[in-house]
Amino acid sequence: MTMNKSHIFTLAAFALFVIMTPRLCAQNSVSAEKAESLRQEFCNYGKKFIGCKYVSGATGPNTFDCSGFVYTVSRESIGYQLPRQVKAMYSYCKSITDADRQAGDLVFFKTTSSGEVSHVGIYIGNGQFLHCASDGPNTGVIVSSLRENYWKGKYYKSGRFLPAGNETQSPSSASSGTASGTYASASGSSSSGSSQSGSSFLSKLLVDGSLSFDWNFFDADNFRLNFRGLTGNLQFRYNSGNFQPGAGTSFRWDSGTGTIQLPIFASLTIGEYFSIFAGPVICIGTPYLPGNDDEEIESSFFPGIIGVCWNTPSFDVKKAKVCFTQDIHYTVFNKTDGSALSPVKSAASGLVFSSGVRVTLPLSQML
Is residue 66 flagged as an active site residue? Predict the structure, then answer.
């Protein structure tokens, strides 16, 4: 295959992406001591707002709603951008057990008749949490206890977005029930730093599995809706915050070109709903131009595929998170002599939309 300038650029971009992937992991990995410092700063900054009033939709500086309070405290204290809404915030966090909960984790509640997650607070240790309440005897930013009958009955789950800390809880300081003092880990763990780092790394590895149907709306000669096959996808990604590097592979039956495609890609998930991916493609079978079975074309191993994907907010099904996904990807095909296809034929062959369902599980729950 003859490589033109666009092929060389794509190859260079992919190489740079692969080089940067481990660096992204390293930049987002912090020591347990640093994590503990972040957690304390997060909690202590939130306590400064105790007494502020509740206003629906508000994010400060003097009024908040429950998610607006957590959102603003996280952003302004430690520079961490969480999703704005409660359900999105819950989907963003890694679910943890009550025994693993530490100061700086989030606690979620179901307080409405809908049965959905509707309230969030910041856990500060010793069964207490800081939150912005909308009703009850005390409203606004207050400290409450998970042992209170009301909150005990509404409590749903705990979630983590910060790395685990390593400091044990101090019952004397945490039991005061005030906004002063330092609240530390409730786990009581005394494991070594190295084992905590390994555990933290594994706990952040996520496995995404998806199934989708492929389509586009034109071939080389006609503008029409076309079924382009089915795709099964498996991806591993590191849940390091707003930038989550990953890698995976797909099994794709492409009815348009009459081939089986096996993309091997690196990915980068940005925020909660968007990701990009690129990599080489192994093509099994002889491809033909969609809409013209007499015109043989040639697949490209590298550059192979590049695409973008976005998804809906996820919902829980037992231990898994489920969402609907949509991606647009372009797979490179050429003429049989290695030269480039015309823009129309190139798009008809390689530009495909995939609509499907994705299931996500922490790798630790699969081991």
Answer: yes
